[in-house]
Write a structure and sequence with these properties.
The complex is a heterodimer of chains A (about 600) and B (about 425). With about 600 residues, chain A is mainly beta. The longest helix of chain A is centred in the middle third of the chain and has 18 residues, at about 260-275. Chain B is mainly β and about 425 residues long. Helix content of chain B is about 10%, strand content about 35%. The chains are: A mainly beta (about 600), B mainly beta (about 425). The interface between A and B is medium-sized, with 26 and 21 residues.
Chain lengths: ~600, ~425
């Protein structure tokens, strides 16, 4: 014990006093006070690194530097160095962050020169991105941490901050590469990482602790992600982020009854953290080893937070927001059991009516379930009569309330081209995107594109040339002479077709308010093309296209208390009435002439 | 026997013989200017219900209309018509107008139909969401075709109901032209020329480098001439036959000269004439100011065109200048030519001018607004023209204003005449009006 103490004091003395007068090269782990960059090197900063060695930063445009008498030159600019005797030969070797392209390299020093650089990490970045800010430093006694902030002119979405953890004892080894990309409206807030080390598993080896902080809507959420130091490398401790998400979502749920506003805010924090960190929602901003998002599987914590958001909005009487939140329950990566889903849905029953809409129940009907390729089972013949495209077809007269047999009205739900030769068989998902499957006499005729597939870069298409029965929310509204009119959640697209029902150009996104091609069969769009009704979950929204007016949410009394989602929407010529089928029954929603939003 | 669309009976054989007879007259009368290569020689070569008429497959109704027009135009003294083609023939008292801007490829603006003699009422109005700058064109079945700046191209039944609506990618300034096979050709501001069927389906689309805002013209052989970054000649399938480059975008609607020329103005101050067959430059006249007005071509081959310097120019068939009529303010409307040769046009000086074929003023009518719309002349010689003073004017051949009607907003569209005398016109309030 005594000798131990003596040795420590002696070592401390050597470190503090012994080296200042040394004439030789920098001593290992010592402070390299003699290192003086040459004038052309233009060092921006020089700091002794906590773990030993010397860290330096350079201004943009620095192409070569002199490090302890050895010239270091790299292709492109040198932005930061960390000099340290890695191999124990008495010379300080160098880790460097270089630009053009952005990369982290290691250079071993041999006497008065450096060997060829070994590339340890190269952040993926589009052309035009450069290193905006860079730092290299020791991370504990055996690791180094390279931090590069990429600035990309004209493409803010490509900007990211990269953190590379390096093994400073075995220099050619990169331990981990993390990056954080810029936020957007789908994954909002400022996400930052702070790296530290701590022996979390108490095995005598420090582990990597990454503190991820998300600042969102004035709140600050921190989560510690741990990578354990194992002989094979760093291994992430899988308990996070779920433990934090679960804990915080429970905390939010506990506040729901008495403080719904707080519950809402905390739940939104959880969801923001989930989106920022986890792979499943598809908008992760944290990348590990170049792969976006941590694998979080189905998150119960985020699922609980998502349902709490619905209930909190409902408790606050925020109809529109509650409906949007209800739609969001179908987002990937959320584990929501049936009971919790039921709670969320039941909460909508307390929502106040919106838009002065009144509900009217009609007779029961039976219509065959149909895909998005088929026309709505309902269509307004005029303001008071609704055609029910059932077998046999019938007409619901709103004036009398009677359902009578149709008399000559066309009740076919299959969409055909004006010549009658071609019909729309399905809307499918392929590797190209969502397409219309058009047939002639039952034989395939064409597959024009509705919406191109937008996978993450490099993602493979699992369909391998096949088509999946997945309309992706697209529904067909009609087949006017110009092509097939489709809609998804209020977005209207025209698939232009030639005389052979082949694509006559790319799908045409119809801007809000743009007049629709005509003629159209009455259904989710009025026959004059002036009004469109869009269903999204329980939400019924009517849009007036010409002249354009903001969408109106129809939410009559008792609407949230009914079971089953509405289907087969139709809008009247005036846009004041909407008919749907819900739970096997015809329903009509009516709003007054000058409807408030 | 075939039941004709208009309710009378016509045998295919009779039609064929009549067509052959007319073809004979055509060939004799054409002299050296024989029609272009014929895609059919007999009915058997035509698909469906079409017949081979004048070397081209067409529907019987079209063939009959063509025959009617030619019979009306045919000289009664038995003489031939020299070098004139049927489309270029001097319209007789009741020459059928052709469904395109200004009533035909010579852009005379004359119609064989009669417009209202007294201030008409609004029979119906179809509302679009933006100004209607283009001029309506009436198809053989009475359908009214007109585009709007709201990016729609509309086909309206004579009762005002919408037959179909084409949702374009950009605005429609161009008026339509209807080819003999029924294809409706119209230019779009997105730089495309569309060929649509009568049912509104896309037959073809030709993408051009710049906006197509001027109205296309269709020659007797079916060639479509379109102004864009110069002049394009398209075949009946929309394929480019030739392109004549020009400095800047051409906004002047091309006109066809009886001598086989396509005449158009350019923004760099020229009136150009190119061979209708291959685009070879024949002549160009430097007029010293931008030409956005379309040319109109009289029976004697004289070319009338307005300039942004405020002049109406009369050019010979060889491009030589015959006279200039000074207005003092931009002349952007295409001049109309009355049966007696009087040239009628509105200008930015707020007047409707009538000028004799020798260049003297016959009369002048003052309005309260600039005039951008081209005048149309009905069967009785009455002039119909809209002004940016919100009024539509009807002017007698002697210059008396017979009536005017306040339409509420500027009128930049030229009128079209329905068979029953209905006037169709677009207005800046977005309305397509039927007046009768």
């Amino acid at each position: 014990m005594y000798y131990d103490r003596l040795m420590r004091v002696a070592l401390l003395g050597l470190l503090l006093f012994g080296c200042s007068d040394c004439d030789g090269p920098a001593v290992p782990f010592g402070l390299d006070a003699s290192a003086r960059p040459l004038p052309e090197a233009r060092p921006a900063a020089e700091t002794p690194a906590a773990g030993g060695g010397v860290a330096r930063r350079y201004e943009e445009g620095t192409t070569s530097v002199d490090l302890d008498g050895a010239r270091l030159a790299l292709d492109g600019a040198i932005r930061a160095t960390y000099a340290r005797d890695v191999d124990g030969d008495g010379h300080a070797d160098v880790f460097a962050i270089a630009d053009g392209p952005p990369r982290v390299v290691y250079l071993r020093r041999r006497g008065e020169r450096f060997e060829a650089p070994v590339e340890l990490a190269r952040p993926s970045a589009p052309e035009g991105c450069r290193v905006g800010d860079a730092a290299l430093e020791a991370l504990g006694p055996t690791w180094a941490h390279a931090r590069l902030a990429l600035a990309c002119a004209g493409d803010a979405t490509a900007e990211a901050v990269h953190h590379v953890v390096l093994d400073a004892e075995r220099a050619t080894r990169r331990l981990e590469h993390l990056s954080v990309s810029a936020g957007d409206e789908r994954s909002p807030g400022a996400l930052t990482l702070a790296l530290d080390r701590d022996d979390r598993d108490e095995d005598g080896h420090d582990d990597l602790v990454v503190r991820a902080t998300l600042e969102h809507e004035g709140a600050r959420v921190e989560i510690a992600l741990v990578w354990l130091d194992r002989p094979s490398g760093l291994a992430r401790q899988p308990g996070e982020p779920e433990a934090t998400l679960g804990e915080r979502s429970l905390d939010a749920l506990r506040r729901l009854e008495r403080r719904p506003r707080e519950a809402l805010a905390r739940s939104r924090e959880v969801l923001a953290l989930h989106r920022a960190l986890c792979r499943e929602p598809g908008v992760a901003r944290l990348a590990v080893g170049g792969v976006a998002g941590l694998p979080c599987a189905q998150s119960e914590g985020a699922g609980r937070a998502a349902t709490t958001v619905v209930r909190a909005h409902a408790a606050l009487g925020e109809t529109q927001a509650a409906l949007d939140a209800l739609d969001a329950l179908s987002e990937p990566g959320l584990r929501i059991n049936d009971e919790r889903r039921r709670f969320a849905r039941r909460a909508l029953g307390s929502l106040p009516a919106s838009g002065d809409a009144t509900l009217r129940e009609g007779p029961p009907v039976r219509v065959a379930p149909a895909s998005g390729a088929a026309l709505s089972a309902l269509g307004f013949l005029d303001e008071d009569r609704i055609l029910v495209r059932s077998a046999p077809p019938s007409v619901w007269d709103l004036a009398s309330g009677e359902l009578r047999a149709a008399q000559g009205e066309r009740a076919e739900r299959t969409l055909r081209d004006p010549s009658g030769r071609f019909e729309l068989a399905a809307i499918e998902r392929t590797c190209d995107g969502h397409v219309l499957r058009i047939v002639a006499s039952g034989l395939p005729a064409s597959s024009p594109l509705v919406a191109p597939r937008a996978p993450p870069a490099g993602a493979a298409c699992p369909l391998a040339g096949r088509a999946a029965e997945d309309a992706g929310g697209w529904v067909a509204l009609g087949w006017p002479p110009q092509g097939v009119l489709t809609m998804r959640e209020g977005e209207l697209r025209l698939v232009p077709l030639d005389l052979s029902a082949r694509a006559a150009g790319p799908p045409q996104v119809l801007e809000p308010g743009a007049p629709l091609p005509l003629p159209l069969p009455p259904g989710a769009v009025s026959a004059d093309g002036r009004h469109v009704v869009a269903l999204r979950g329980l939400a019924v929204r009517v849009m007036q296209l010409a002249p354009r007016a903001p969408p109106v949410l129809l939410w009559p009394e008792r609407w949230g208390a009914l079971d089953a989602d509405p289907t087969d929407a139709a809008v009247s010529p005036s846009g004041r009435r909407v008919a749907v089928i819900r739970g096997g029954r015809l329903l009509s929603i009516e709003r007054p002439e000058a409807a408030p939003r | 026997m075939i039941v004709a669309a208009r309710g009378f009976l016509l045998s295919r054989g009779v039609l064929r013989r009549a067509a052959a007879a007319m073809l004979g007259v055509w060939c004799v009368s054409c002299g050296a200017t024989t029609p272009a290569a014929t895609p059919c020689m007999s009915d058997r070569e035509c698909q469906g219900a079409r017949v081979c008429h004048q070397g081209r497959c067409m529907f019987e109704e079209e063939a009959r209309a063509s025959l009617r027009a030619q019979l009306v135009d045919a000289p009664t003294d038995g003489s031939t018509r020299g070098a004139e083609t049927p489309a270029d023939a001097p319209p007789g008292p009741q020459a059928a107008e052709q469904p395109m801007f200004m009533g035909g490829p010579r852009r005379t603006g004359r119609s064989h139909r009669a417009g209202p003699t007294a201030a008409p009422s609004v029979a119906w109005v179809h509302r679009t969401a933006e100004r209607v700058f283009a001029s309506p064109v009436v198809g053989g079945d009475g359908t009214v075709y007109v585009g709007s700046l709201d990016r729609t191209f509309n086909a309206l039944a004579p009762d005002g109901s919408v037959r179909w609506r084409y949702a374009g990618r950009d605005k429609f300034y161009s008026s339509a032209a209807i080819a003999s096979d029924g294809t409706i050709v119209v230019g779009c501001h997105d730089g495309s020329v569309l060929g649509l069927t009568r049912e509104g389906r896309l037959r073809w689309r030709r993408e051009l480098p710049v906006a197509v805002d001027a109205s296309p013209v269709i020659g007797p052989d079916g060639t479509i001439y379109v102004a864009a970054d110069g002049l394009y000649a398209l075949d009946v399938e929309g394929n480019v036959r030739f392109h004549v480059a020009a400095a800047g975008a051409v906004r002047s609607s091309p006109a066809l000269h009886p001598s086989g020329l396509v005449v158009f103005g350019t923004v760099d101050g020229r009136v150009r004439a190119v061979d209708a067959r291959d685009g070879t430059a024949r002549w160009e006249a430097r007029v010293g100011a931008s030409v956005e007005s379309g040319a109109a071509i009289a029976e004697d081959g004289t070319i009338y065109v307005g300039t942004d310097r405020g002049q109406l120019l009369a050019l010979g068939a060889d491009g030589s200048e015959r006279w200039r009529y000074e207005v003092g303010s931009d002349v952007r409307a295409t001049p109309a030519i009355a049966r007696d040769g009087t040239i009628v046009f509105g200008a930015y000086d707020r007047h409707v001018h009538a000028v004799s074929p020798s260049g003297e003023r016959r009369w002048r009518v003052e309005t309260s607004g600039r005039i951008r719309a081209s005048a149309r002349i009905d069967r009785e010689g009455r002039v119909y023209v809209g002004s940016q003073d919100d009024h539509l004017y009807c002017i007698a051949p002697d210059g008396r204003v017979l009536w005017s009607r306040n339409m509420g907003q500027d009128i930049d569209s030229s009128v079209a005449f329905g068979e029953d005398g209905t006037l169709y016109v677009g207005v800046d309030d977005g309305g397509i009006y039927a007046l009768r």
